[in-house]
Input
Amino acid sequence: MDNSPPDQPARKTSRIQLRNRKRILEAALEVFSAHGYRGATLDQIATQAGLSKPNILYYFEGKEAIHVTLLNQLMENWLAPLEEMDDTGDPLEEICAYVRRKLEMSRTYPRESRLFANEILQGAPRMAPHLETGLKPLVRDKAALIGRWMDEGRLARTDPMHLIFSIWATTQHYADFAAQVNVLMPDEDAVFPGAQAYLDTLFRKLLTPAD
Output
């Protein structure tokens, strides 16, 4: 006869626990985006969150666990603009729409962009698996799609991979170098509309096939 106790149902996470966990991640995003992984400390995260350090460690094993959680959440959003590129759409409009989505991400999620940039600058020690299994196949597929559009004469010929890199560089600049941009262009309300108009012209001129 089996006298072992019945399995206990998993305890649900309370609203307070969910709120505190979200609070910690929000604070950590602020700290990591400002100081990078190496410069950030649990004490800084605790202060930013308005919680004690032991309270932080109740929810996460340590700084790395918080950082990995943020990176995991980020990667989903990071891939979405490229995934939306439609192989049945007009090639030039699809590329320009992708540029707009990436620029909007820089406007809306500047801290996430800097978090990603800091991780890459350190050699991607915690994000390497995502780059291999998520980013790499997606970028290869979209580069192949862009290459096919070029072969069909629907886009001007250029290197698809370097095109994607240049889109990243020109859009993410506004988040990763925001301090510099804000000094050089103090009218913050004009920065992103101006950037969108400029980049749309830039990539249309680059990619419009010659008559």
Observations:
- The chain has two domains: 14-60, 68-207.
- The longest helix spans residues 15-39.
- The mean pLDDT is 91.
